[in-house]
Amino acid sequence: MAQTAANLLEHVLPRVPLRQFVLTFPFELRTRLAYDGALLGTASRIVVDSILGFYRRRIGGGGTRSPSKGGAVTVVQRLSADLRLNPHLHIVALDGVFVAGPGGTPVFQPLPELATRDVADLVQVVRARVVRLLIHQGVVEDDDTLTVLTDDIAEREPALARLAAAAVSGLAPAGPERRNGLHPVTLRGRRHSQSTAPLCATDLGFSLHAATTATAEDERGREALVRYILRPPVAQERLELLPDDLVRIHLRRPFADGTVAVDLDPLSLLCRLCAAVPPPRFNTVRYAGVLAAASSWRALVVPPPPEPTPHHHPGSTTAAKAPTHRSVWRPWHELLKRTFDVDLQACSRCGGHMKLKAILTGSESTQRLLRSMGEPTDPPRRAPARDPPTYKSRVLRRQRR
């Protein structure tokens, strides 16, 4: 998360305003999108193209015939806060477009204003185009009910399809779950497009949120925004092992029905985590518009390369590359300093620069270091073989009877 965010900010995203769009798909489509990587990839391209098309229509070429191009970075997240399978898109879009200026140099023109009705219109466009794709691909029937049909992938990989369906709905083996909340609140929605909050809208299960922004000068806000879309599926601090053999997932904020925590059997939690693995050869970070690798304007809009420093880590720089290929590997101490403001190379007492003490390259060097620290060097014994796991929690076993 920290390394990709640093590379995006220093080598990819121009110094222009950014806006985050979060697009969630209807509940009935999540199972199919979860394990069908080709379908999810096509749907993602349609969503991003709709957003970039909105910017082109709103801003255009500034009254000229010059082409206008936007840009976006899309991160495909796969889990909800309770670790249910929920493929959704976090899109960081340039909040404006580039137009050809004097001499053909791209000039950025920001979006003057984004209204809630614009978001409602945009989610309608997304819904119409994605539904048209699903009908063309034979995923849903061409009728008013939009019934989801079976597919060849589910027939070839029935276990994968059942695991995805269970992780979406919270049923066995990825459930059942026990929710802990405040008090139930019943919400009623409409089938047609409606605004649920400022710069938020829903339409037939498609939900679009566009209220999060970061200005060009707000370095901390830009980095926080990019880190957020790249965050891991779950934070270890939100997991708690309970005395009754349950695992509790603490939610960052309560659900609409008042749920503040979800209790799961350990096996159910593992099933949800397994379903979080994306399909093979599916890129979860995608680039579009002027930020795409094939864009002729990419080298002209990305940040300039940083100045070389006389003292640098050997692994933090590479040989000369093309202007659009400058992302580098970053050492661990640099990521800790950037993320938590913890400098591992500075002594906590005197502030002096610390030196490398040992490099562990094999079992012998590891054993020498452990012996010098007074730690055991023998590995723990392997646990004996056992039957397939079942629900450990007596609470959920009684609930399923």
Structural overview:
The protein is α+β, with helices and mostly antiparallel strands and 401 residues long. Helix content is 33%, strand content 19%. A hairpin with a 5-residue loop joins β5 (96-100) and β6 (106-110). α1 packs across α7, α2 (27-35) runs antiparallel to α6 and α3 runs antiparallel to α4 (116-136).
Average pLDDT reading:
85
Helix content: 25-40%
Order of helices and strands: HEHHEEEEEHHHEEEEHEEEHEHHHH
Tally of individual helices:
12
Q: Identify low-pLDDT runs.
A: 183-191, 310-319
Class inferred from helices and paired strands: alpha+beta
**How many E strands?**
14
Ends apart, CA distance between termini: 42 Å
Coarse morphology: globular
Spatially, the strands of the biggest sheet line up as 8-9-10-1-4-3-14
The value of Rg in angstroms is: 25 Å
Outline the biggest β-sheet. Answer: 7 strands, antiparallel
Query: Strand portion, in percent?
Result: 15-25%
Draw up the topology in text.
Blueprint: H1 2-12, E1 18-24, H2 27-35, H3 37-59, E2 68-69, E3 71-79, E4 85-94, E5 96-100, E6 106-110, H4 116-136, H5 152-156, H6 158-169, E7 177-181, E8 194-197, E9 200-203, E10 206-214, H7 219-229, E11 239-241, E12 247-250, E13 259-264, H8 266-275, E14 285-289, H9 298-301, H10 332-340, H11 363-373, H12 394-400
Antiparallel strand pairs: 1-4, 1-10, 2-5, 3-4, 3-14, 5-6, 7-13, 8-9, 9-10, 11-12, 12-13
